[in-house]
Design a protein that fits this description.
The protein is an alpha+beta fold. The chain has one helix at about 65-85, and strands at about 1-10, 10-20, 30-35, 45, 50-55, 85. The chain has a four-stranded antiparallel beta sheet with strand order 1-2-3-5, covered by helices on one side.
């Protein structure tokens, strides 16, 4: 398994992991989650502070583990952005 990537985005910690799928070699599968660690990092509010997930999807396989991490992180950033509310609009 490829080591997990960890990055912070607007107060959320995004963690991703990818691994080689033996049945589809040489392809990688990936998944990830994001947890809110610093709610005040974003100036507005949040519709939810629940953990966000991007589950493994065998229909979305990658040939490069860096691309796998980047794609899953982008999915999680989009989920986080959908939870943002402007300052004072919660």
């Amino acid at each position: 398994m490829i080591p997990a990537m960890r990055v912070e985005y607007d107060g959320w910690e995004i963690c991703t992991a990818c691994w080689n799928e033996p049945s589809t070699s040489p392809y990688y599968c990936a998944s990830g989650y994001a947890i809110l660690v610093n709610p005040k990092a974003y100036g507005g509010g949040w519709l939810s502070a629940m953990r966000q997930t991007a589950p493994a999807n065998r229909d979305m396989l990658f040939t490069d583990y860096r691309e796998a991490h980047a794609t899953i992180a982008a999915v999680l950033r989009a989920q986080i952005n959908a939870l943002k509310t402007p300052l004072g609009k919660m």
